[in-house]
Amino acid sequence: MREKQTLIEEKFIALLEVHRFRKITIKMICEEAQINRSTFYSYFQDKYDLLDRLIDHHLSELDQLVSEIAAGINRQSDRRELSSIYLQNLFQYLYEHKIFFKTLMIVHPAQNFNQKLIQLLRNNYMKVVENVKMQNAEYFVNYTLGGQFGIIFFWLQNDCQEPPDVIADIVYRNIIKTNR
Question: What is the DSSP secondary-structure string of 24-91?
């Protein structure tokens, strides 16, 4: 049963790469997935429900992935190794789901998606720095996050030409350099 839902989600993302969300119809999704409308409606209320659930799923998965590491970083005296792992996992997830992220961030930006992603990352960064003696931690986090988001955007826009570990290292080195 999960196979049909996954198929619907994949075909929907493929359609989003080509068409604006408002132009996509249930009929188009069903034709691409080669399913009946009743099959679509057994999983989703409408295309808005499909999009919302996809966004919620990916943001939840990403949050779970990075928040566990962020909590671990906060308990370490030497944060460098876990900070590097945090970034590697973040960029690996983005890479594994690059079609989804590229489509919703760049090709046909979804309403509020970028803000939700930035807020998720900001919350995790704030957890990381909450026990660190740092002046103006919120400004540092926002500054760092702005640069990181720019790198994510540029990387996805260029179809993730560099491997995720290379991008993670670039971000890591910039954070360490900035936070002297």
Answer: --HHHHHHHHT--HHHHHHH-SSHHHHHHHHHHHHHHHHHHHHHHHHHHHHH-SS-HHHHHHHHHHHH
For 31, the token pair is 């034709």
pTM (predicted TM-score): 0.87
> What tokens appear for 85 in the block?
């792992």
Q: What is the pLDDT along the chain (180 residues), one digit of tens a residue?
A: 679 999 999 999 999 999 999 999 999 999 999 999 999 999 999 999 999 999 999 999 999 988 877 777 766 666 677 778 889 999 999 999 999 999 999 998 876 899 999 999 998 888 777 766 778 888 988 998 999 999 999 999 999 999 999 999 999 888 877 544
Which amino acid is located at 62 in the chain? L
